[in-house]
């Protein structure tokens, strides 16, 4: 089974001995939470009264990534060893990723079961010496330890735990957020390959230490937000902190600059305390949290320069290699802010317009028989604007030729008014006269 094709219940399952629960493992769970990674935790996720063995085994099967924290007494717990054996089986069958961490024990001790691990297994073997079935399990546990300990992982002995945890979280994020492939892009988005490549050139993603701020501009409905979203999905996992504020204008109008700052803090750091802070405190939080981190931030739908000024997000506040994208219809706002470049989104060409329209109007890549002339008329009206193509195509889907003709006549007579009606009201509720 393809590991990426399954609908996972959890992002991460962490197997650990209780001795690490309130130190290393607790910090690891906190870091996963800050990065919006859903981790199964046995003391919080199991329903009371549930048979613990069944719940844990189901959680293992439903997790995309396994983290195993090997500690000095890990092997003394038969329950940890059962978890590990299940993890090893799942990894071999489905390709789920296993990340071993050696907390206060060396990889060699785990791999070859020496030291404390040898003592633990002597006790297991003595305990189950008269039980042939359990002795087979003990051999299985040994094999699982060797299998997992041979994988590439982290030896955190005598190292900064916070630094190592950040590396672990970054690895998990990379696994959970694979790069957007060209094939997956072509299945969902039309005409975005070239603009995406152009935007990546503006950002100079291969350049290491510099900080770049790039603007995306173009008329309403042309696909600016779609372009920013595609890039965010494609590369955000490569950064320590990522944030997509999807409607700066609305948030600013509703809550002022503090609303935008709280949105940024909440997304980037899962910062609950930001709800209580004022503008000055939010400024300090953003500056202090971002200054040594490689960040990727998208500010979508900025329609006034004052929004950027009050947000006070400055390039000197973010770490080396950071990238900031500002999306606006007004190129002047972007130039005034001092962006390093402006990516101007263009209208779709005829081929892409036709392809997008067919997907919406016919749920196909081809024009249905008898609709050729009407399709050309619709495309002439839409004039390469993706939003107009989507709205009109969706509205006309499943309708008869006479209904298409009526709708297109009304668009010709009252283009602005009638398009707004199509955009606002559901096609199921509209009646074409």
TrEMBL record:
Any Pfam family hit: TIR
UniProt-listed Gene3D superfamilies: Helical domain of apoptotic protease-activating factors, P-loop containing nucleotide triphosphate hydrolases, Toll/interleukin-1 receptor homology (TIR) domain
Signal peptide bounds: none
The protein's name: TIR domain-containing protein
TIR domain ranges (all copies): 8-176
Entry superkingdom: Eukaryota
InterPro entries tied to this protein: Apaf_helical (IPR042197), Disease_R_plants (IPR044974), NB-ARC (IPR002182), P-loop_NTPase (IPR027417), TIR_dom (IPR000157), Toll_tir_struct_dom_sf (IPR035897)
């Amino acid at each position: 089974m393809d590991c990426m094709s399954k609908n996972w219940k959890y992002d991460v399952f962490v197997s650990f001995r209780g001795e690490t629960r309130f130190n290393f493992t607790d910090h690891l769970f906190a870091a996963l939470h800050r990065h919006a990674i859903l981790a199964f935790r046995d003391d919080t996720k199991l329903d009371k009264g549930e048979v613990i063995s069944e719940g844990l085994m189901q959680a293992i099967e439903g997790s995309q990534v396994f983290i195993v924290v090997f500690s000095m007494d890990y092997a003394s717990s038969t329950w940890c060893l059962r978890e590990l054996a299940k993890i090893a089986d799942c990894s071999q069958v489905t390709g789920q990723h296993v990340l071993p961490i050696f907390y206060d024990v060396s990889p060699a001790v785990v791999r070859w079961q020496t030291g404390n691990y040898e003592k633990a297994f002597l006790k297991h073997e003595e305990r189950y010496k008269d039980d042939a079935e359990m002795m087979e399990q003990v051999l299985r546990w040994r094999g699982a330890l060797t299998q997992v300990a041979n994988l590439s992982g982290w030896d955190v002995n005598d190292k900064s735990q916070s630094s190592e945890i950040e590396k672990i979280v970054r690895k998990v994020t990379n696994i959970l957020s694979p790069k957007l492939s060209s094939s997956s892009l072509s299945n969902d988005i039309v005409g975005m390959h070239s603009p995406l490549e152009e935007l990546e050139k503006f950002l100079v993603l291969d350049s290491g230490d510099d900080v770049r701020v790039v603007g995306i501009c173009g008329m309403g409905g042309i696909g600016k937000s779609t372009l920013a979203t595609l890039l965010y999905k494609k590369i955000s996992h490569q950064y320590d902190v990522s944030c997509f504020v999807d409607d700066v204008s609305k948030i600013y109008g509703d809550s002022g600059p503090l609303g935008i700052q709280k949105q940024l803090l909440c997304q980037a750091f899962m910062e609950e305390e930001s709800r209580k802070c004022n503008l000055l405190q939010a400024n300090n939080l953003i500056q202090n949290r971002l200054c040594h981190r490689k960040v990727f931030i998208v500010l979508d739908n900025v329609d006034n320069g004052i929004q950027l000024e009050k947000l006070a997000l400055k390039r000197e506040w973010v770490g080396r290699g950071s990238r900031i994208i500002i999306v606006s219809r007004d190129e002047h706002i972007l130039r005034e802010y001092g962006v390093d470049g402006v990516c101007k989104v263009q209208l779709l060409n005829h081929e892409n317009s036709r392809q997008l329209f067919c997907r919406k109007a016919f749920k196909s890549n081809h024009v249905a028989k008898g609709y050729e002339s009407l399709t050309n008329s619709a495309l002439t009206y839409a004039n390469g604007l993706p939003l107009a193509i989507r709205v009109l195509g969706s509205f006309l889907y499943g309708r008869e030729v006479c209904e298409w003709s009526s709708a297109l006549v009304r668009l010709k007579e009252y283009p602005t008014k009638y398009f707004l009606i199509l955009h606002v009201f559901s096609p199921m509720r509209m009646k074409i006269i």
